[in-house]
Design goal:
The chain is an alpha/beta fold and about 425 residues long. It is built from 17 helices and 7 strands. The radius of gyration is 28 Å and the shape is globular.
């Protein structure tokens, strides 16, 4: 037995219960337990087992568990409070060891043992107890983007119904999901309803919801009437379509209201943090907002998902965490030349970085480049690479910028490659 190695407790986390297997320093199973998350006695029993193992081997067991949604959090906090070092691993890591045995057997007990063995094979870092505000910020940002995705889905469904009821409605209102357009559709769902509406009532509805003048509202009304007359014979004005239209409008309004509430909660959380004696979140978000294309929500999401920049010893580790690192295909003398993005990292971070990258390679309405350096970099890449590959390269550059800003705790400075090289030479000197 190697006395230098500590015992390892592997925990396979489930929704209502978890399976724990404790390995000795020689990797033999010395204890097993089924831990029910809704029973404090069951969790206390697991702690007692770990303390007994600590006495038997004169070494505190290390606990390793898989990140499983939010189900692992109860155990994580309980075992941390009991004084044990806890490691949270990515499911991709635990899946990598599933073929350790020749036999195709999978159950919670075997998974718990494999999770413990994984610790022996890989170097892992203990997971810090989450900052409560940071945890709340992450939940709010994830909710925000989930609501945005749902809103987009229901807007597409609404458009499909509107096209059947009045295909040329978008000729009147470019944004069919705008407040004014939704108000018209809610009150006058078909061309027939529009043609039979009282002119003064419909004009007032357009004016009040758009907050434009009477002249503008009247022109919109006249165009709407013209388009309604053209499409009225072609309209599929079934009762089902009318009901579905009303349903989707109601859902879109609810989702918009929910988005406003989540956004307000995020702002209140950051304002409360800023008023603390030692603010944690607001200074870092302010630094991130100095990067072109990054606003409050994207900055909050980036910080909430990265959490602690010191967890990444090198910028490339943060690149891999975001799933922007290239996949590697090598075997013997073969070396793959067409290696795509791994996409094994954080999906939401990639989504946010994609949005920020698009903002950095565009021009403003007056023709100015939002980020001249990344704009030029993107277009040089496009000369030899497909556009999406070039955009991926911009996303990677942004990760390096984010890493530097959070690591140095200094605002972003726009530098071209030559200026950046000079600054590096000065700092080295």
């Amino acid at each position: 037995m190697n006395n230098n190695l500590p015992p390892i407790a592997g925990i396979d986390v489930g929704k209502k219960f978890s399976q724990m297997a404790v390995l000795s320093p020689s990797n033999t199973i010395v204890a097993k337990a089924k831990i029910f998350h809704n029973a404090s006695d069951s969790i206390h029993n697991a702690v007692d087992i770990l303390k007994r193992i600590e006495k038997d081997f004169a070494a505190k067991p290390i606990v390793v568990m898989e990140a499983t949604g939010h189900y692992h959090k109860t155990l994580f906090y309980s075992l941390n409070e009991a004084g044990f070092e806890v490691y949270i691993i990515n499911p991709l890591q635990s899946n990598s060891i599933k073929n350790l045995n020749i036999r195709k057997v999978k159950n919670d007990k075997i998974d718990a043992v494999n999770i413990a063995l994984l610790f022996r094979f890989q170097q892992l870092r203990p997971t810090n107890i989450p900052n409560e505000d940071l945890d709340s910020l992450r939940s709010l940002c994830r909710s925000y983007f989930n609501l945005v995705d749902e809103l987009t889905a229901y807007k597409n469904r609404l458009l499909a119904i509107v096209d059947q009821l009045m295909l040329n409605f978008s000729d009147v209102f470019d944004n069919v999901c705008s407040k004014t357009a939704l108000a018209v559709l809610e009150n006058y769902p078909t061309p027939k309803h529009i043609l039979h509406a009282k002119p003064e009532v419909l004009i007032e509805l357009i004016r009040s919801t758009s907050r434009k003048n009477l002249q503008w509202a009247t022109k919109k009304y006249e165009l709407l009437i013209s388009k309604a007359k053209d499409f009225e014979p072609l309209s599929i004005s079934t009762q089902t379509n009318i009901i579905m239209l009303a349903t989707y409008i109601s859902i879109i309004k609810t989702l918009n209201l929910s988005l406003e509430k989540v956004l307000l909660e995020i702002k209140e959380l950051l304002n409360a943090d800023a008023l603390k004696d030692t603010p944690v979140l607001s200074p870092l978000i302010s630094l991130l907002c100095t990067i072109p294309g990054i606003g409050l929500i994207t900055a909050a999401t980036i910080l909430a998902e990265i959490r602690d920049i010191t967890a990444f010893s090198k910028p490339n580790k943060l690149v891999a965490f975001c799933g922007l690192d290239p996949s590697v295909k090598e075997s013997g003398q073969f070396k793959g030349s067409k290696n795509s993005m791994s996409k094994r990292g954080h999906k939401l971070l990639r989504k946010v970085l994609f949005i920020v990258a698009l903002a950095n390679i565009r021009k403003t309405s007056n023709g100015n480049k939002c980020n001249p350096v990344l704009y030029d970099y993107y277009h040089k890449k496009c000369a030899s690479k497909p556009k999406m590959v070039a955009l991926g390269a911009v996303m990677r550059k942004l990760v390096l910028i984010i890493y530097a800003v959070l690591r140095d705790k200094r605002p972003f400075e726009l530098r071209n490659p030559e200026e950046h090289a000079k600054s590096l030479d000065k700092s080295a000197a």
